[in-house]
Amino acid sequence: MRRKRYKLIADEFWAAAGGREQFPCQLESSVLWALPVAVIKLPRLWVSDVEAWLTDKGVQFRFETANRPLHGSLLAYRGRGCVLLNGADSESELRYSLAHETAHFLLNYLRPRRKAESLLGPAILEVFDGLRVATIRERVHGILGRVPIGFHVHLMERSTDGMVNHGSLMEVEDSADLLALEIISPEEEVRRHVSGVFSQAQHRKPVEIATGLLLEEFGLPSGVAEGYAQYLYPPVRASSVREWLRQREQ
């Protein structure tokens, strides 16, 4: 069920971008076209660099997390977003990091915001933007409509080595990973490519074929390619994509 939802969201994203890119997706121009999101590459990216970038823009903010290196970070306010990326990363890392942060913007910021506005009217956006607290009526309607009401903070809590330890945070990251993969390496396309190769080389295992294709044709980082291939063609059933994808610092 979740995969169908992510496919729908990915299809909506590519429709807004004017059509799906060829693989491997460059993605950045499509994000800029489809969403109110800016993409900025910094020479390096640690938590402290995000804070320094905000300070330079006149925003004093400190994250309640240990300083550590990041691949990407999402900042969102008043319906718009900014993705900061580690410009020293490889092309494949940048592609996946941008897809992951874009997925966060769609799943954890833009869609809840739009749903709340549809349910409660434009005045509720003042709550999302931290300009006021929600009224009792807004909180009740939010609970009944299963809409999170309140100021949005991107979840960055990790241990000092970047590992995800909190259950609810793992679920959020798991969802972002699945949508990111559906955007730049959709399951149907991957399986179609694998079937075409497997029919001509049946001595190779599908998971081996998938790993190679995800690296070469879809341009995923090696750890993500290996994890996604095992998630699609598991030797045993996986309960979460996080069991296969390497832990990522966000």
What does this structure look like?
The protein is 51% helix and 8% strand. With 250 residues, the chain is mainly alpha-helical. It has two domains: 2-177, no CATH class; 186-243, no CATH class. A three-stranded mixed β-sheet has the order 1-3-2, with helices on one face. It starts with a helix and ends in an 18-residue tail after the last helix.
Summarize the structure in short.
With 250 residues, this protein is mainly α. 51% of the residues lie in helices and 8% in strands. A hairpin with a 2-residue loop joins strand 2 and strand 3 (80-86).
Strand content: 5-15%
Structural category: mainly alpha
The best one-word shape is globular
So what's the oligomer here? single chain
Total of helices: 10
What average pLDDT do the residues reach?
82
Order of helices and strands: HHEHEEHHHHHHH
Alpha-carbon distance between the termini?
26 Å
The strand line-up of the biggest sheet is 1-3-2
Largest sheet: 3 strands, mixed
- Counted up, domains total 2
Determine Rg (CA atoms, Å): 19 Å
Low-confidence stretches: 149-153, 157-166
Helix proportion range: 40-55%
Strands, count: 3
Pick out its properties:
250 residues, mainly alpha, three-stranded mixed β-sheet, 10 helices, 8% strand, globular
Task: Please write out the topology.
Layout: H1 2-16, H2 28-34, E1 37-42, H3 47-56, E2 72-77, E3 80-86, H4 91-120, H5 125-128, H6 136-144, H7 167-184, H8 187-198, H9 206-216, H10 222-232
Parallel strand pairs: 1-3
Antiparallel strand pairs: 2-3
